[in-house]
């Protein structure tokens, strides 16, 4: 999946929105910097997973937010599984 939100400002917007949405969906709040980082990592994870599933093409801004949010939710779930005993 090729995420193309457009430039650095586009990636920052995607990261913030995706991180915030993932936080709302999972009941976590990481603050503005945490949401940005979570959203950007989620974009990478989501794009990678969508590519593995054979879903390809250009996503645009809204598609990038959706893919990044899905990836960020997966990242949160994995982190919770790994840190559950701590």
Describe this structure in words.
- This protein has 86 residues and is an all-alpha fold.
- It has one domain.
- It contains 3 helices and no strands.
- It has helices at residues 7-26, 31-52, 60-82.
- Helix 1 (7-26) packs across helix 2 (31-52), helix 1 (7-26) packs across helix 3 (60-82) and helix 2 packs across helix 3 (60-82).
- The longest helix is centred in the C-terminal third of the chain and has 23 residues, at 60-82.
- The N and C termini lie far apart (35 Å).
- The mean pLDDT is 84.
Structural class: mainly alpha
Helix content: over 70%
The SSE string, one letter per element, is HHH
Shape, principal axes of CA atoms: globular
Q: Give me the Rg, rounded.
A: 12 Å
Beta-strand percentage range: under 5%
Protein name: GlsB/YeaQ/YmgE family stress response membrane protein
Membrane topology: Multi-pass membrane protein
Subcellular location: Cell membrane
Family: Belongs to the UPF0410 family.
